[in-house]
Amino acid sequence: MSSDCPESAFELRTLGNNCLLCNLLRNVVRRGDYQHVPIIRNPDLALTVTTDSPCVFRLCTNLSSFLPPFNIFNYVAYYFMLAKYPSTDGSYGIEIGPPILQTISGALYFQLLREWLRECNQSHNCNRQIESQNWPTRVIFVGSSDPNKLILQEQVSGMDYLVLSHCWGDPTDEERKRFCTTPENYRGRKEGFSYNDLPKTFQDAVRVTRELDKKYLWIDSLCIIQGDKEDWKKEAKRMEHVFASAYCTIAASSASNWRDGFLERNLSPQYFQIQSNSRRQVYVCDNMHNYSKDMDESPLNKRAWVLQERVLSRRTIHFSAKQTYWECAEGVLCENFIGLQW
After folding, report:
1. Domain of 26, in residue numbers
2. With left for phi above 0 and alpha for psi between -120 and 50, is residue 158 left, alpha or beta?
3. Which of the listed residues 15, 25, 29, 216 has the most CB atoms within 10 Å of its CB?
4. Is 39 in the same domain as 149?
């Protein structure tokens, strides 16, 4: 930035009309409620709004600046490699990655999730066979040829299953009766029940399970018979084994209840493009990754049981409000292709 950098958020209101950088910074400051604090220039390619605040936007360059376009699958695979290793351009110290995130329901988004699992399966010990592996008493079969049909199955051993970590919220008695497995509907659900009758958070979990090419899913309120004290007492003791033995945990971090869902984001990311002295295209964007903040502030992590679920899970995909994160024993990967090591 030049020497006439604005010294306060107030000055950005007028400068933002004529300066792309000031406009982007003004919007970031407005979202963070930093209206009366000084803006500090940082020599390390980022700006902060206070001396102890995180960076408010970043510089990145897209993969196409280096190589010609790939087909969609190689494109994701190459980006995954960049996330695995330090994702910067060694000549300029600029991150390699997209200025905005993928559409959460798009093919590229789910291919990235599959690449995370594939790489972990091939290169890590996270999915190693557990000596005392315990399968759940019941799971939901989501692999029917009829996408609307789900089946509650018992004693499915030796098969990969995913597990949902989520907030119940405060369901009404009517919602509990409608959505939960109870003594009254238990037999019927073993014959089959409807995907369309589930709340949005459960529907999203079914979709993720299918997109990851798996057929079995465990959700507590569907796989434990609610209202049956004996079944709850028995299954509560098995909860640690259910999470520890799962192929992967789906963490509905952004959902505060069954109705919210977690496969939609209300974000309007902004960026603009500049050209370096070497004619390389560089993006200035407000797509920041802040794993700790996104996790700490999520509705899910305010739930008492989640610490146990998180610690026991071998691999977790966190669906936060701002970004999707992969977590396993080797570290954290961000949706914008940045890798964080433990």
Report:
1. 9-56
2. left
3. 25
4. no
